[in-house]
Design brief:
Pfam families: malic, Malic_M. Its cofactor is Mg(2+); Mn(2+). Among the domains are: about 165-315, 3-Layer(aba) Sandwich (Rossmann fold); about 325-510, Rossmann fold, CATH 3.40.50.720; about 510-545 and about 555-600, no CATH class; about 665-845, Rossmann fold. Helix content is about 45%, strand content about 10%. The chain has 40 helices and 25 strands. A hairpin with a 2-residue loop joins strand 12 (about 495) and strand 13. Helix 18 (about 325-345) crosses helix 19. The chain is elongated.
């Protein structure tokens, strides 16, 4: 009875459970998860057609999972525990596998938090949250989002450091990828990455475990850092969990304790350095972008100082990458400094700075401050003069031998000293920043000196964890008499001093990196420059209120980080679209709406799609196959649309999507290829000839327009070029006097009397080229063909209509009635022609010469819009492959057997053109385009389906330790 009452109390409390942060977070996320009505609710007015189209393009779609029964319950991204409805339990095959009770997500959150708070220590809480993440992903992130301030120190610093130190004992389930020095090639690493179940990875957090927080070399135990970091990507930035991949590079460890730890999970060997180490990094970066795409974000985390800055400089302009220890720390510190300016009334350029600790974090902060000063009009040299850096050897001066390249610009021309207080006395700085991991370095004397020179000294003790901080918050407030503007790297409790309560600021990188990651991923930013981190810093600083500053809080509330991340992402988008470096296309009209539709939300959704009816007559014939969205660069080729729609749809979509119409553009290109080949015989360029088209549909106008483009590129005006084309349709010659003329025909209409007679037009125009696209069999009569031969030593006659029984003439007729002088092509194949003792092989203007190469080049080099210049390029490539021998026997196109090679040549020409014009989106540009294309094309030979195996060194495959055997005291123990 007593236990029943307790249960009643728990459930009753859970029903009323509403954490103070949950409501705001849930509302902002739910607003975009309830379908089109949610989008409508953002606006007081109805959505325009374009707004509705954009919303539908970017909104997340719900898809019923393939998993059923126990498989579904074992998948954390799908599992809802006892929150599954009865309908879902029955439909998804889990009815009876769960207890019969039903719980809301709020009740589940309450139960989790109650159990967490009962744990004896933070490590136990970490283990319990880790287990929850393995069971129920949405619930894990809901709990974390609702209790950011309470749980962030558990899932990340400082508790994650303790978890990493004990990782051999708490390891239960793999949560990332391990790449070792023994896997050091692109293909091997690629194979490992292919073992990861998610193919849509967009963000990788990478570590080699050499400098884990402030704990030193933890080797493979460092995997806990990328796991924790990506948890914050999701909880604080709204990055989708399926986009995230933690990776540890295991190159060994120099930590003797780990090498002798029987439970150590990594390679038992000394760290590899030098060329082999660098090759592993190069190979990993190449493999990860090969596997997941060139815009995959790779965040470097906890690399040693000797590597961190060097690797950032090496890769930042080649890949989408940043180093949070350098750039993230710099950004969050600058955010704090900008917030402090609201109290001191001084800008960054009006202050002097002393850094105790001169590693990557310190130089990153200094460089970002210099960038801000530079943007406000100060020279870089003068800005650098305001920064004084100290490392283990003391103040960095110009007289120091072998000075680090990152320190040169900040080195001072003053006597060296190792005394921090001496530097403070000499410089009298407004800002003192610690990043040394030397506990107690900011002594009472140092802090009192800072207060002596400033009404509001700025002191940032950034070293992690708290037992390595340069001073505590309490010491900072006590020894500056409460005037300090203080921030630390790890959280300190509230300080009570002189009757006031101070809430120390925590310069947590979590204010920065989730928003940077979200903006970079959503808007497909290729390179993350320092201006984006400065933008993030300003965004964070703008969120600090006057009320917060009055109690010493120089950073926003941790509970607001998710909203701040969204703001940072929007600011990044505005900046990058303005600078032309965002690659999401088309640009969303409402960036706020777009970002909110993309962020991960923690509320449960039904896993069963809504059903809907079809018209009864359509259900008799089966159902259409649903098409998944494939991305903005997906090529869509329009084929066999009616004339009334073909040209109209091409014009409508060609500048919005990656699309072409083969009937118009492909036909035009292959015909122009034939004409260019004919020029080798006639000796005349396209602009020196006149053209009569019998048939004026999309194919004919496409051919004419592509010819005009070629003439224009050779210096002829468009007007004069159009004058050389005469188009005839069912109503005869298209003239300017015709009423309701088709818009596509206007430029080609002639100011001469109309006529329906083709022979009359031939007699009047005396063209060099006659093209048929009318489907009127026999339209090119003997009289017409003889007239063409009368005016030209080598008349060009293309009878393009398909199939052969609709061709305007046969090949045999063309050769017979022109006495073998014709240059002939048809749309469908004709047999060889034997005439006057000669064998002629009629050309077939088959679009297959063009569209495969266009498609290959467009796909491989990610071309967004396919303009007519690409089709002209393809035509020239095809024409260049026609040999003199072929022309002698009337073949004006290459052999069909050569089409595959021609397609590769077209793709390479497209690549050269598009990289030159800056419209190729495959990055980085392959050095050898020919080799790249040939490695990408499909080949038909069978391959072994088993990856090549390879051995590791024997010492790396040793088992950790022998399992001790208990002594047998009794024969029954056996």
């Amino acid at each position: 009875m007593r236990s029943g009452k307790v249960a009643d109390v728990i459930i009753s409390s859970a029903r009323n459970y509403c954490p103070r942060t949950a409501q705001g977070i849930s509302t902002s996320m739910r607003r975009w998860s309830d379908g089109e009505d949610a989008a409508q609710s953002k606006y007081e007015r109805p959505l325009t057609e374009n707004e509705r189209r954009i919303y539908k393009l970017y909104r997340p779609e719900r898809v019923t999972p393939n998993e059923r029964s126990v498989d579904l319950l074992n998948k954390p991204c799908l599992n809802k525990g006892m929150a599954f409805s009865l309908y879902e339990r029955q439909y998804l095959g889990i009815h009876g596998l769960l207890p019969p009770a039903f719980m809301t997500q709020q009740q589940q959150c309450y139960r989790v938090m109650k159990k967490l708070r009962e744990q004896p220590n933070d490590l136990a809480r970490y283990i319990q949250l880790d287990s929850l993440q393995d069971r129920n992903e949405k619930l894990f992130y809901r709990v974390l989002c609702d209790h950011v301030a309470e749980l962030m120190p558990i899932v990340y610093t400082p508790t994650v450091g303790l978890a990493c130190q004990n990782f051999g004992y708490i390891y239960r389930k793999p949560k990332g990828i391990y790449v070792t020095i023994n896997d050091n090639s692109i293909s091997k690493i690629y194979q490992i990455l292919c073992n990861w179940p998610e193919t849509g990875v967009r963000a990788v957090v990478l570590t080699d475990g050499e400098r884990t927080l402030g704990l030193g070399d933890l080797g493979a135990y460092g995997i806990g850092i990328p796991v924790g970091k990506l948890s914050l990507y999701v909880a604080l930035g709204g990055v989708q969990p399926r986009w995230c991949l933690p990776v540890l590079l295991d190159v060994g460890t120099d930590n003797e304790q780990l090498l002798n730890d029987p439970f150590y999970i990594g390679l038992r060997r000394r760290r590899v350095r030098g060329k082999e180490y660098d090759a592993l990094l190069e190979n990993f970066m190449a493999a990860v972008t090969k596997r997941f795409g060139q815009n995959t974000l790779v965040q470097f985390e906890d690399f040693a100082s000797r590597n961190a800055h060097r690797l950032l400089q090496k890769f930042k302009d080649r890949y989408t990458t940043f180093n949070d220890d350098i750039q993230g720390t710099a950004s969050v510190v600058v955010a704090g400094l900008l917030a402090c300016n609201k109290v001191t009334g001084k800008s960054l350029s009006e202050q002097k700075y002393v850094f105790f600790g001169a590693g990557g974090a310190s130089t990153g902060i200094a460089e970002l401050c210099v960038r801000e000063m530079e943007m406000n009009g100060m020279s870089v040299e003068k800005a650098c003069d305001r920064f004084y850096l100290m490392d283990i050897d003391g103040l960095i001066t110009k007289s120091r031998p072998n000075i680090n390249p990152q320190h040169v610009k900040f080195a001072k021309n003053i006597p060296p000293t190792k005394s921090l207080i001496e530097v403070i006395r000499k410089v009298q700085p407004q800002v003192l920043i610690g990043a040394s991991t030397v506990h107690g370095a900011f002594t009472e004397e140092v802090l009192r000196a800072m207060a002596e020179y400033n009404p509001h000294p700025i002191v940032f003790a950034l070293s992690n964890p708290t037992d390595k901080s340069e001073c505590t918050a309490s010491e900072a407030y006590q020894f500056t008499n409460g005037t300090v503007l203080f921030a630390s790297g790890s959280p300190f409790p509230d300080v009570y001093f002189n009757g006031n309560i101070y809430k120390p600021g925590q310069g947590n990188n979590a204010y920065i990196f989730p928003g940077i990651a979200l903006g970079t991923i959503l808007f497909q930013i290729r390179h993350i420059n320092n201006d984006l981190f400065l933008l993030a810093a300003k965004t964070v600083a703008s969120c600090v209120t006057e009320e917060s500053l009055q109690i010493g809080r120089i950073y926003p509330c941790l509970n607001d980080i998710r909203e701040i991340s969204i703001k940072i992402a929007i600011e990044i988008a505005n900046y990058c679209y303005k600078k032309g470096i965002a690659n999401l296309y088309p640009q969303p009209e409402d960036l706020d709406q777009y970002v909110r539709t993309q962020v991960y939300h923690t509320e449960y959704e039904t896993l069963v799609n809504r059903t809907y009816d079809w018209p009864a007559q359509d259900m008799r014939h089966g159902f259409p196959v649903p098409v998944d969205p494939f991305g903005q660069n997906t090529l869509v080729q329009f084929e066999d649309f009616a004339s009334r729609n073909a040209h109209r749809l091409l014009q409508k979509f060609k500048d919005r999507y990656t699309t072409f119409n083969d009937d118009i553009q492909g036909t035009a290109s292959v015909v122009v290829a034939g004409l260019l080949a004919c020029n080798k015989v006639t000796g005349k360029s396209l602009s020196e000839q006149k053209y009569v088209f019998f048939g004026a549909g999309g194919a004919s106008t496409g051919i004419a327009e592509l010819c005009v483009r070629e003439m224009e590129m050779n210096g002829m005006s468009v007007e004069k070029a159009c004058d050389r084309f005469y188009l005839m349709d069912i109503d005869g010659l298209i003239t300017k006097s015709r009423p309701n003329i088709n818009p596509q025909h206007v430029k080609f209409a002639k100011n001469i009397p109309p006529t329906k007679s083709l022979i009359e037009v031939i007699r009047k125009v005396q063209p060099q080229v006659l093209i048929g696209a009318s489907t009127v069999h026999g339209a090119f009569t003997e009289e017409v063909l003889r007239a063409m031969a009368e005016y030209n030593p080598h008349p060009i006659v293309f009878a393009l209509s398909n199939p052969t029984d609709k061709s305007e003439c046969t090949a045999s007729e063309a050769y017979q009635f022109t006495n073998g002088t014709v240059l002939f092509a048809s749309g469908s194949p004709f047999p060889d022609v034997y005439f006057n003792g000669n064998v002629y092989k009629p050309g077939q203007g088959n679009n297959a010469y063009i569209f495969p190469g266009i498609a290959l080049g467009t796909i491989l080099f990610q071309i967004r819009h396919i303009n007519n210049d690409l089709f002209l390029l393809a035509a020239k490539t095809v024409a260049s492959c026609v040999t003199e021998e072929s022309l002698q026997i009337g073949r004006i196109y290459p052999c069909l057997n050569d089409i595959r090679e021609i397609s590769i040549k077209i793709a390479i020409e497209i690549a050269n053109y598009c990289y030159k014009k800056g419209i190729a989106n495959l990055y980085p540009q392959p050095e050898d385009l020919d080799q790249y294309v040939r490695t990408q094309v499909y080949h038909t030979e069978y391959e072994t389906l088993v990856n090549r195996t390879y051995d590791w060194p024997a010492q790396d495959m040793r088992h950790g330790f022998p399992v001790p055997v208990d002594p047998c005291d009794d024969v029954d123990d056996n």
